[in-house]
């Protein structure tokens, strides 16, 4: 199991989750990324990040809402192909789109 960061994080990017992660598995490139990403290989499934998120964007793998499932793949992909992951985020929620 792992945790993922979904749609509510896009263009918000509050880093409270980063601050509480005991293994520093939440990453992003400042000024480039529109959301934060959890490394599924580094995540220890402690769940510390989930309650720290002010926009309820973090989900345990078994609790991901159906409409947020693409982010399971996107979070993992960011660690091997950042540009492809960023394109998928933009495709799901184009820059400037509200809600």
Describe the structure.
Helices cover 29% and strands 10% of the residues. With 99 residues, the protein is α+β, with helices and mostly antiparallel strands. It has a single domain, classed as Alpha-Beta Plaits. Strands 1-4 form a two-stranded antiparallel ribbon. Strands 2-3 form a two-stranded antiparallel ribbon. Helix 3 runs antiparallel to helix 4 (82-92).
How are the elements arranged and paired?
Layout: E1 3-5, H1 16-20, E2 26-27, E3 37-38, H2 49-52, E4 58-60, H3 70-78, H4 82-92
Antiparallel strand pairs: 1-4, 2-3
Helix pairs in contact: 3-4
Rg, Å, rounded: 12 Å
Oligomer: single chain
Strand content: 5-15%
Shape: globular
The percentage helix is 25-40%
Give the strand line-up of the largest sheet: 1-4
* Total of DSSP H or I helical runs spanning 4+ residues: 4
Q: Could you name the CATH class?
A: Alpha Beta
Tally of discrete structural domains: 1
What is the name of the CATH topology? Alpha-Beta Plaits
Q: What's the N-to-C terminus distance? A: 28 Å
Structural class: alpha+beta
Show unreliable segments. none
* Annotation, overall tally of beta strands: 4
């Amino acid at each position: 199991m792992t945790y993922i960061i979904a749609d509510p994080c896009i263009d918000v990017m509050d880093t409270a989750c980063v601050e509480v992660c005991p293994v520093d598995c939440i990453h992003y490139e400042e000024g480039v990324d529109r959301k934060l990403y959890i490394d599924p290989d580094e995540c220890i499934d402690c769940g510390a990040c989930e309650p720290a998120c002010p926009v309820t964007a973090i989900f345990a793998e078994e609790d991901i809402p159906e409409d947020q499932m693409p982010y399971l793949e996107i979070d993992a992909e960011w660690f091997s192909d950042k540009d492809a992951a960023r394109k998928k985020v933009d495709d799901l929620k184009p820059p400037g789109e509200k809600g």
